[in-house]
Predict the structure.
Amino acid sequence: MKFYFHFLVYFCEMKFLWIDGEKVEINDRDKTLVDTIRSAKKSITAPCYRTLRQFGTCNSCLVEINGEKKLACGNPPVCEEEIVLNRADLIEERKQKVKVFKKHKEMMEKYL
Ligand code: FES
């Protein structure tokens, strides 16, 4: 899987993608879209990415990739794809998923 992720990035001529219409460079160390979004100094909710994973998947890193809603932490940055990050419905959906994840985390902490 790791090889596949890097294959998608390394074998394209231009290492960039579009986030909300803005051209963003893909760094060689970006493994997922969360990394690319953050290295572009943009904000995305991703509480279970690298931390809090023991409480399960939060589903709150939702973005639209080429017209399809997907999780940014589960997708590699792919050259020239179009990402929608800050649209009202996506922001609202991310907020709801963070609330659900917080409740789930609180419940899980009682048993850990
Ligand atoms: S960061 Fe939690 S599912 Fe993506």
In short: The chain has one domain: 2-111.
